[in-house]
Amino acid sequence: MTAVKHQNAVSVAGVLLAAGQSQRMGETNKLLLPVQGRSLLQRSIDLLAASGLDPVVVALGYRLQDSAPIVCAAGLPFVVNNQYADGQQSSLRVALDAIGSEPHACMVILADLPQLKAQTLAALYQAVQTAPHADAWVPTYRGTWGNPRVLSQRWYRALCRGEVSSARELFAGSPDGVECVPVDDPGVVHDIDTPADYRAFLEALEK
What we know:
- This protein is α/β, with parallel strands linked by helices.
- 35% of the residues lie in helices and 20% in strands.
- The protein has one domain (12-206): Spore Coat Polysaccharide Biosynthesis Protein SpsA, Chain A, CATH 3.90.550.
- The strands form two sheets. Strands 1, 4, 5, 6, 7, 8, 9 and 10 form an eight-stranded mixed beta sheet that branches. The chain has a two-stranded antiparallel ribbon with strand order 2-3.
- The radius of gyration is 16 Å and the shape is globular.
- The two termini are 30 Å apart.
């Protein structure tokens, strides 16, 4: 596990958002693209499985027939967002509903971060233990906010109840409640959205 747990640790759940249509990739499902011998989805699943977060769930939707076998092979639970075309927030709500209201906080991991390090997940987990009363915990790389982000129970329950329209609204409304967590991980600010993004990532690996 990447997270070092202690007997009196507060609970941190984990959700992996992997339901989107990858519209900017054209006909390609970006989560099936190879990244150093594994698909992008498999890499993200492996990070989640080794994270020590509990409970965990994967949100699936688009091209379920391709993604569900990969999640099942890893032994992780998943939920299906049939309204995945409505956008990421709909998948987040479905996943958070599955997590329930007991965890102190929930880490929201995007499945299209090819360079994300396991150490970053551990750093965020430890930040929750150190500052448990924050509203959210966000990794920063050279001063820039990145992902994944951790939402407090109060925030993620507000999302589930529909009190706010999106996580972005929560961050905009209460910036003082956000705990920034500096990490040495450019992967928190680099995702893959387009074929050009993917080519640039592969070229960077070869350097």
